[in-house]
Amino acid sequence: MKINKTVKKGLWAVVITGVLFFAILIFHIITAKPAVYESPNLQVSRIDFQENIDSAYAKKICSDLRSIKGLTTDSIIVKRNVVVYFHNNKITNSKKVFDELMSKGDYDAQRYILPAGLANKEVCPVDQNSYSYKLSKKINQFFN
């Protein structure tokens, strides 16, 4: 069975392109370095608002929060009358942020404080004794 020369050339082009992309992927995996996060200093906090938050009100809250020193500006989430934000706990804490926000505007809100029963609970949803977790950890350590 004879295959047309154009089809052969097309198949070779597809194979060569696939091998090239695979080589680029392997090169990237070997040379890429993982991102370094300041995770020991990053903390998440929450403020519960009593009134409904519309888009204009959310923008005002976000601009007031962004002006507070120690908050990461791109990590403010406003949903269902709750504002969740991330802050550097070396610079500020949730009480200072809440007090400063209340001084910037007339907000009807309260700071969320984690109940004592939940404070010591592990929050990672991944079973750290599972085979898939251990395998992914080994692969991650190999490439890093």
User: Unreliable segments (pLDDT under 50, ≥5 consecutive)?
Assistant: none
Structural class, by secondary structure, is alpha+beta
Helix content: 40-55%
State the major sheet: 4 strands, antiparallel
Number of strands: 4
N-to-C order of helices and strands: HEHEEHEHH
Estimated share of beta-strand residues: 15-25%
User: Rounded to an integer, what's the Rg over CA atoms?
Assistant: 25 Å
Per DSSP, the total helix count is 5
Strand order of the largest sheet: 2-3-1-4
Mean pLDDT: 84
Overall geometry comes to elongated
Question: Concise description?
Answer:
The chain has 144 residues and is α+β, with helices and mostly antiparallel strands.
Overview of this protein structure:
The protein is of the alpha+beta class. Helices cover 47% and strands 19% of the residues. The chain has helices spanning 5-31, 55-66, 94-104, 116-119, 131-143, and strands at residues 42-49, 71-79, 82-88, 109-111. Strands 2-3-1-4 form a 4-stranded antiparallel β-sheet, with helices on one face. A hairpin with a 2-residue loop joins strand 2 (71-79) and strand 3 (82-88). The two termini are 49 Å apart.
Which features characterize this protein?
144 residues; alpha+beta; four-stranded antiparallel beta sheet; 5 helices
Topology readout:
Elements: H1 5-31, E1 42-49, H2 55-66, E2 71-79, E3 82-88, H3 94-104, E4 109-111, H4 116-119, H5 131-143
Antiparallel strand pairs: 1-3, 1-4, 2-3
